[in-house]
Amino acid sequence: MLVTGGSKGIGRAMAEAFRDAGYKVAATYRSGGVPDGVLGVTCDITDQGQVDQAFETIEAELGPVEVLVANAGVTRDTLLMRMSDDDWDTVIDTNLTGTFRVVRRAARPMMRGRFGRVILISSVVGLLGSPGQLNYASSKSALVGMARSLARELGSRNVTANVVAPGFIETDMTSVLPEETIKGYKARIPVGRLGSVDDVAQAAMFLAGEHAGYITGAVIPVDGGLGMGH
Length: 230
Prior knowledge:
The protein has 8 helices and 7 strands; from the N terminus they run E-H-E-E-H-E-H-E-H-H-E-H-H-H-E. The protein is an alpha/beta fold.
């Protein structure tokens, strides 16, 4: 199985969780490294050649990718009137088009093997919206349409496609936020806390597992209730 963007945060936690559950795990990364016991492959998903090379390496070392967790993403946050074309293009090319490149490369072997689990990591802001994140929210919202189209195209080959939409999760990025900002987030979240990376990893593991074979085209929020109804 493959996790893209597996060097830190949610991606790293998912790679560790799948490894600990006995999966043969590969993870792509652009910098840093991956957890012990995980096959690390450097890959920029905005480059189709690097995507193809990464899959060839993984297939040679671990066999076909039967579970794909498309997690790699970037942010370029700023308000609409300040957002440059480059801010827009960078986020869309990584979060949306990059995910498309990875999914396209993974799909054919899954179809041949008549088994596959595609799990796209979106975000609560893709459904709820977020000021200053027009590019990011657009890219993450589009993953829902991608997954549901995949579900209809590939379902007859026993390939499912689902979305996990995390909310505010405790990571290195949130750890540097002011305490007042964190309190504001917690006040908006019905369960009254930020999520953990393990919360997201467990949702992904369920969708990859044997008990989720009849779930496809679904959006699974892992957000403490923040985005309910959206």
